[in-house]
């Protein structure tokens, strides 16, 4: 009993103490309220409109964050002269959001609007803001088709998705993936992000193999159908960009389909990454091993304190909306309101004038009252900088300055940070690391990653389709079946093939580092002779995963397919008949008759001029040519010099080109010749022509030049199989079995590994002696005639008479000219001239009559070498006669 009384007394004491404490807090709160009210009465109230979907988790979260932003800001700055007052409108649809904005402008006379929540509403908000000169600040717009120069009043307090696309491209490049699949939401927001992705991935040469758009209201059956199609494709890298409601359902279906297993890689953008902490356990289990990117938000004491208070306020908020955990969108909303408060305070005092404008919407005119300080408000907002909960707040071109992106891995019940990406340094393990400042694309900088299927092995990014068979396209054609010969089983309709190209393909499969099951699919089943390889290659990758055949590696085709290294020698060559031409006068055909006539006349004129010049007597009595035997040589070599300059250019009209498809057709056409509606030459690739020559031996020959090309296997652009097949092809073509493969398909004696010079005959492609037999016949005739004139009695006699005749003619003309021009010359000079001339004539008349050696004598100014006694005696007698006449 006493114990009970003591307990009662203790309880009463505690109640009294609690009563006094509560009374004191109430008084303090009352004083604070009165003080705050007095401060508010002195401060200018600035109305700010807010448009949210308060029935959505995101709208509820953002609403609480913005209310706390106003409360926290003025609690930290109680002496500020302005106070923001938020006027929040609930809008569940696009139409309601548009009407809510008009109502805020018309009735609330707001100075700015925060919103919209949905990207679909951006265009109307931007147009209205530009018209009424009022800032519209969004905390959700990540990708926008709006132009900053044209829509300056639409401000995005969020980073740009174009930068995130660059981060994704760098990550895929670092992992060595050459093609990816993009799954995105079919909205303007999703389509614009796809455009960013396409540009960023093109810069790093990564192909977007498939781009699949899903409507917002897509059913699970539609998701299942599309994912099942992707399961049969080679590409194993998927990038997901869609809202959380659609994206989380996509992963649940993906696990059912079986594409969340080992060998697959999944990457999510921050449209999903920001909501990973709010997903349920079922979705979290289906997303194990997913890689994600999101703007990096550093942890701080202020952020932790805010998160605790925000969670308490969310619990106190009486709402039936499913609760969402705090994420980046809530922090951006908080910082956006803080930025508005700072900008308004910097403008104070507010001396604005209201004026009315008319805005037409849905055929109705709305009268709005607008403040004149909108442009000033926008400029101040653009200059506002501060440290917010999401990081540094700074607007650049109407959007938030780009932050670093965090790369994380979904593991267990949460997410694990594996690295970061920045515009300046690329991929880094830590943001504050002091390593190299060079841009890095190496994923070695990342921490360990667990991939789907609990695998720690990096996915290759591609695999043989789930059907287990590689679709190999082969051409069905008429000729040159030694390369590819399609065989159709009449019972099963199963396609098979053999030939050189097929044997090379089978040999490369044995050397690949992984097994491949394949199935042949023929092209041109109608055996149309007008089919083309280009049409066949355009069926990649829709019908074929690769094409095997005698497919030429050609630059224009590289625009839509990738080729392996060539498995045959490269080159396009000309083949002609291997026969001798019996026309010994073929060398005259390049020049027309009038040109030949001009050359002959020129040669005769040259001979006459040389003959005239050599008979002139210089002061030393020397000829322009060394001997008489050299005179005709200058004449008959002149046409040879002329022949070295002409070059014949080949221009063939399309009407003279014929198309054939087999070696037999070539042979028959060449046998007929062009005069009998056949052909005279074949222009085709070296492998075909070597096979053709191997069949018909020496009947034909190759002639140059060679135009480089080759045969290779074709793959889709960016296919990872290209490098593996190229390496295997090198091993096959340089291996010991290549010759046996060639001879098995083309016959003995064929080898593509022989040097090209051994196949293209240098002798047959060059001119022979017989081709210039006519020219040498002319040269020989002139030479014999020259010898006849100089070495025979008859020839010398004829030559002397001709020379005497020409000399007399020249002498008479020269004497007449000298007598007219030198009438005043004295007799002594004239006698000396006659003396020299007679001595010269004496030497000329007798030099050919003697071959006996004698001594050298000097007579006057003439030096005679090796003259005989008879010549000397005759010369002496003439000299004495001249001396007597002069005396």
TrEMBL record:
The chain crosses the membrane at residues 593-613, 767-788. The keyword Membrane applies. It comes from the Eukaryota. SUPFAM superfamilies: Periplasmic binding protein-like I, Periplasmic binding protein-like II. Keywords: Glycoprotein, Ion channel, Ion transport, Ligand-gated ion channel, Membrane, Receptor, Signal, Transmembrane, Transmembrane helix, Transport. Residues 469-748 form the Ionotropic glutamate receptor C-terminal domain. SMART domains: PBPe (SM00079). It is found in: Membrane. It is a multi-pass membrane protein. One of its GO terms (cellular component) is membrane. The keyword Transmembrane helix applies. One of its GO terms (molecular function) is ligand-gated monoatomic ion channel activity. Residues 1-28 form the signal peptide. Pfam families: ANF_receptor, SBP_bac_3. InterPro entries: ANF_lig-bd_rcpt, GABAb_receptor_plant_PBP1, Ionotropic_Glu_rcpt, Iontro_rcpt_C, Iontropic_Glu_rcpt_pln, Peripla_BP_I, Solute-binding_3/MltF_N. Glutamate-gated receptor that probably acts as a non-selective cation channel. May be involved in light-signal transduction and calcium homeostasis via the regulation of calcium influx into cells. Glutamate-gated receptor that probably acts as non-selective cation channel. May form heteromers. PANTHER family: OS06G0188250 PROTEIN, RECEPTOR LIGAND BINDING REGION DOMAIN-CONTAINING PROTEIN. Belongs to the glutamate-gated ion channel (TC 1.A.10.1) family. This is Glutamate receptor.
């Amino acid at each position: 009993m006493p114990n009970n009384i003591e307990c009662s007394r203790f309880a009463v004491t505690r109640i009294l103490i609690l009563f006094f404490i509560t009374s004191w807090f109430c008084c303090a709160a009352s004083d604070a309220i009165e003080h705050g009210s007095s401060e508010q009465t002195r401060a200018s109230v600035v109305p700010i409109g807010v448009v949210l979907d308060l029935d959505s988790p995101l709208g509820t979260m953002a609403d609480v964050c913005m209310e706390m932003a106003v409360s926290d800001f003025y609690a930290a700055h109680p002496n500020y002269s302005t106070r923001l007052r938020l006027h929040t409108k609930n809008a569940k649809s696009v139409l309601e959001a548009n009407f809510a904005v008009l109502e805020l402008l018309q009735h609330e006379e707001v100075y700015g609007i925060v919103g919209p929540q949905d990207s679909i509403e951006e265009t109307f908000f931007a147009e209205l803001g530009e018209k009424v000169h009022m800032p519209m600040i969004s905390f959700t717009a990540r990708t926008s088709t709006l132009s900053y120069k044209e829509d300056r009043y639409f401000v995005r307090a969020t980073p740009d998705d174009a930068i995130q696309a660059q981060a994704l491209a760098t990550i895929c490049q670092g992992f060595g993936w050459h093609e990816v699949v993009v799954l995105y939401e079919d909205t303007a927001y999703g389509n614009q992000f796809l455009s960013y992705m396409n540009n960023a991935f093109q810069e790093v040469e990564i192909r977007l193999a498939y781009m699949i758009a899903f409507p917002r209201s897509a059913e699970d059956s539609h998701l299942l159908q599309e994912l099942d199609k992707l399961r049969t494709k080679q590409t194993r890298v998927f990038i997901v960009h869609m809202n959380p409601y659609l994206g989380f359902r996509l992963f649940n279906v993906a696990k059912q389909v079986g594409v969340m297993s080992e060998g697959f890689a999944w990457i999510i953008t921050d449209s999903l990454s920001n909501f990973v902490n709010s997903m349920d356990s079922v979705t979290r289990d289906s997303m194990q091993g997913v890689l994600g990117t999101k703007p990096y938000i550093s942890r701080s004491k202020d952020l932790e304190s805010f998160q605790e208070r925000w969670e308490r306020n969310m619990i106190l908020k009486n709402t039936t909306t499913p609760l969402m955990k705090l994420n980046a969108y809530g922090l951006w909303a908080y910082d956006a309101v803080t930025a508005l408060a700072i900008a308004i305070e910097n403008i104070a005092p507010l001396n604005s004038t209201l004026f009315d404008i008319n805005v037409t919407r849905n055929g109705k005119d709305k009268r709005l009252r607008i403040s004149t300080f909108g442009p000033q408000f926008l400029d101040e907002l653009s200059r506002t900088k501060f440290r917010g909960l999401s990081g540094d707040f700074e607007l650049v071109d109407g959007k938030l300055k780009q932050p670093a992106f965090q790369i994380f891995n979904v593991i267990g019940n949460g997410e694990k940070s594996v690295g970061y990406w920045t515009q300046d340094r690329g991929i880094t393990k830590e943001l504050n690391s002091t390593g190299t400042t060079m841009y890095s694309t190496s994923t070695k900088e990342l921490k360990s990653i667990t991939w789907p299927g609990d695998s720690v092995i990096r996915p290759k990014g591609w695999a043989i389709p789930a059907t287990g068979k590689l679709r190999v396209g082969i051409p069905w054609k008429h000729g040159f079946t030694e390369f590819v010969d399609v065989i159709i089983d009449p019972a099963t309709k199963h396609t098979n093939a053999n030939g050189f190209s097929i044997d090379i393909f089978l040999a490369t499969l044995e050397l690949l580092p992984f097994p491949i099951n394949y199935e042949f699919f023929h092209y041109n089943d109608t055996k149309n002779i007008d089919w083309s390889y280009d049409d066949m290659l355009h069926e990649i990758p829709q019908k074929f995963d690769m094409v095997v055949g005698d497919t030429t590696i050609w630059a224009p085709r590289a625009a839509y397919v990738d080729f392996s290294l060539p498995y045959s020698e490269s080159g396009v060559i000309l083949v002609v008949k291997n026969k001798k031409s019996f026309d010994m006068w073929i060398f005259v055909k390049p020049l027309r008759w009038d040109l030949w006539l001009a050359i002959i006349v020129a040669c005769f004129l040259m001979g006459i001029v040389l003959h005239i010049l050599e008979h002139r007597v210089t002061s030393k009595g020397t000829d322009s040519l060394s001997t008489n035997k050299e005179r005709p040589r200058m004449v008959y070599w002149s046409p040879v010099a002329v022949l070295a300059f002409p070059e014949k250019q080949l221009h063939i009209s399309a009407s003279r080109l014929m198309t054939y498809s087999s070696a037999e057709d070539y042979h028959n056409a060449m046998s007929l010749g062009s005069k009998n509606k056949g052909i005279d030459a074949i222009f085709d690739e070296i492998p075909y022509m070597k096979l053709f020559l191997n069949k018909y031996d020496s009947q034909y020959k190759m002639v140059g030049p060679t135009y480089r090309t080759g045969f290779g296997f074709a793959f889709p652009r960016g296919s990872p199989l290209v490098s593996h097949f190229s390496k295997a092809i090198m091993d096959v073509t340089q291996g010991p079995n290549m010759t046996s493969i060639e001879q098995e398909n083309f016959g003995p004696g064929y080898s593509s590994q022989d040097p090209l010079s051994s196949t293209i005959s240098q002798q047959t492609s060059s001119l022979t002696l017989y081709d210039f037999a006519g020219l040498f016949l002319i040269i020989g005739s002139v030479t014999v005639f020259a010898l006849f004139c100089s070495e025979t009695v008859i020839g010398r006699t004829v030559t002397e008479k001709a020379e005497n005749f020409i000399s007399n003619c020249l002498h008479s003309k020269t004497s007449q000219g000298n007598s007219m021009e030198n009438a005043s010359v004295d007799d002594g000079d004239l006698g000396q001239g006659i003396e020299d001339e007679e001595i010269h004539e004496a030497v000329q008349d007798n030099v050919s009559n003697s071959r006996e050696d004698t001594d050298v004598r000097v007579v006057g100014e003439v030096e005679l070498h090796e003259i005989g006694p008879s010549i000397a005696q005759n010369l002496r007698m003439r000299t004495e006669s001249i001396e007597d006449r002069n005396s």
